[in-house]
């Protein structure tokens, strides 16, 4: 089930990349949204992808550090390819800002996973 979920999510991101603004139902919705919404959507989108990938790698027995590194690198490479694909879609352009937003989402999830899994230190002094 995990692999199917990750692949389905990647297909969903890929389909979103191929939407031409103003063309069809989804293209019409995109042009109605404020630009900051579409631009900032990269942060959670690639954060979720990183989390799905890291969870899948870790479930398969990868150490957490390796799973996070592989997930972050994989999500970033996927995001770069999606930017290249987006450049071939009428009305869309390749954007360094989108790549940076992808990286921000990836980085935020990596930091959250590391923070969540930090050992808790006792605040009482040892006797």
Question: Can you tell me about this structure?
Answer:
- This protein has helices at 2-17, 24-32, 35-40, 42-59, 64-86, 96-116.
- It has one domain.
- The mean pLDDT is 89.
- It has 127 residues and is an all-alpha fold.
- The radius of gyration is 18 Å and the shape is elongated.
- Helix 1 runs antiparallel to helix 4 (42-59) and helix 5 (64-86) packs antiparallel against helix 6 (96-116).
- It starts with a helix and ends in an 11-residue tail after the last helix.
Mean pLDDT: 89
Give the strand tally.
0
What coarse outline follows from CA principal-axis ratios? elongated
Return the domain count: 1
Distance between the termini: 49 Å
Q: Describe the largest sheet.
A: none
Q: Write down the secondary-structure element order.
A: HHHHHH
Portion of residues in helices?
Answer: over 70%
Gyration radius, to the nearest Å? 18 Å
| Low-pLDDT residue spans | none
